[in-house]
Specification:
alpha/beta; Glycerol-3-phosphate (1)-acyltransferase; eight-stranded mixed beta sheet; two-stranded antiparallel ribbon; 20% strand; globular
C-alpha cells in the first residue's frame, strides 16, 4: 500500500519536474544538425515516418522532436510509465506495449494513428535490449502503416551517462550536441516474414554506422 502510494505521488511529480529541468538544461546547449535533407525529403514525399532510435538517446530526442506532434510506443512496464508521461509532456501521444506485454495491441494503435497522418517513434533496441541490436518492431510498423523508416540519434561533447543497460545519457549544460538524421528507407507493404530480417539488419546497420560517425565527432568510439 505504501509503495503504491509513493509510486502514484512520484508519477505526478517526477515527470513534470524532470521536463522543466531538462528544458532549462538543453536550452543552454549548442546544437548542430546533420542530415536535415533526409527529413526534408520525407516531408516533400508527404508520407508518414517511423523515427527509429537507440534507447540511450531517448530523452534528448523527445525534447528535440517536441514540436512534431508524433506518437511514440513506450514500454508497458512500471518504469515505462515515467517515460510515457515525460513524452506526453513534450508533446507526444503515447501507446504502451513491448515484446512481452500488449505488443500487438500497441502496434495496432500506432498503425491507426499513423494512417491518420501522424509520424511514429519507436526505440529500435526495445525496452530491455540488448543495446544497439535492432528488433523487428520498426520494420513491421513501417510496412503496415505505409511509412518510411528514419534513423535518428545524437552525440555530445559533454554528457552524463546513467547506470542503465542502454547507457541512457543526458547532455550536460552548455555542451555541444550533434543531432543526426540518417538515410531513410522504405519497407515493402504487407512485408513477408522471411523479408523482415533483411530490413531489420538494414536498420541495425544504418543506426550503428550513424552511431559510430556521430561519436567519432566527439573523439570517441562509443558513448
Amino acid at each position: 500500500m505504501k509503495e503504491g502510494f509513493w509510486y502514484t505521488v512520484s508519477l505526478r511529480v517526477v515527470p513534470t519536474l524532470f521536463v522543466c529541468l531538462v528544458k532549462v538544461l538543453f536550452a543552454t546547449c549548442r546544437i548542430r544538425v546533420h542530415g536535415q535533407r533526409y527529413r526534408d525529403e520525407l516531408r516533400e514525399r508527404d508520407i508518414p515516418v517511423v523515427g527509429s532510435i537507440w534507447h540511450y538517446a531517448i530523452i534528448y530526442i523527445l525534447y528535440y522532436m517536441r514540436k512534431e506532434n508524433g506518437v511514440a510506443m513506450v514500454s508497458a512496464s512500471k518504469d515505462g510509465e515515467y517515460i510515457s508521461r515525460i513524452a506526453q509532456k513534450t508533446g507526444f501521444t503515447t501507446v504502451r506495449g513491448s515484446r512481452n506485454k500488449d505488443g500487438v495491441k500497441a502496434m495496432k494503435a500506432m498503425i491507426r494513428y499513423m494512417k491518420q497522418g501522424r509520424d511514429g517513434a519507436i526505440v529500435a533496441d526495445g525496452s530491455q535490449g540488448p543495446a544497439r541490436i535492432a528488433q523487428a518492431g520498426p520494420i513491421v510498423l513501417a510496412s503496415r502503416a505505409g511509412a518510411a523508416v528514419l534513423p535518428m540519434l545524437w552525440s555530445c561533447n559533454r554528457y552524463k551517462r546513467l547506470g542503465s543497460w542502454d547507457g541512457t545519457s543526458l547532455p550536460m549544460p552548455f555542451s555541444r550536441i550533434d543531432f543526426f538524421f540518417g538515410e531513410p528507407f522504405d519497407v515493402p507493404p504487407k512485408i513477408k516474414s522471411e523479408e523482415i530480417e533483411e530490413y531489420r539488419l538494414l536498420l541495425e546497420n544504418r543506426l550503428n554506422d550513424l552511431y559510430r560517425k556521430a561519436w567519432a565527432l566527439q573523439g570517441k568510439i562509443e558513448h
